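Hello forum,

I keep getting stuck at the same step: I have a sequence, I want structure tokens, and every attempt I make locally crashes halfway through. Rather than fight my setup again tonight, could one of you with a working pipeline run this one for me? It's a single chain of 84 residues.
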Amino acid sequence: PKDALQAYAAQELHNREWRYHVEHQLWFKRAVPGDGIDLGDGSPKYIYFDYRSWDRRHFTGSIHDLAQGFLAEDDVRVRVGNSS
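Reply #2:
Ran it on my machine without issues. Output:
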């Protein structure tokens, strides 16, 4: 994001274990017990932030390809100053 506030918000989301997926253009987080998702079978589950309803939703798609589309931490980190 070019806007500074967006960049800082993205960095804070990343610090809170949310990851931005480039293809889906959504923020995802691995589900934990407090997220209200049934974690019964032990396989990783993900939630995403649905900006249309302003709520977290359970991701029901394939998680095998999901991790490959997340932005790297360096792409999310806010850079201060001029790095010449």
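The chain is about 20% helix and 20% strand. If your local run keeps crashing, start a new thread with the error log.
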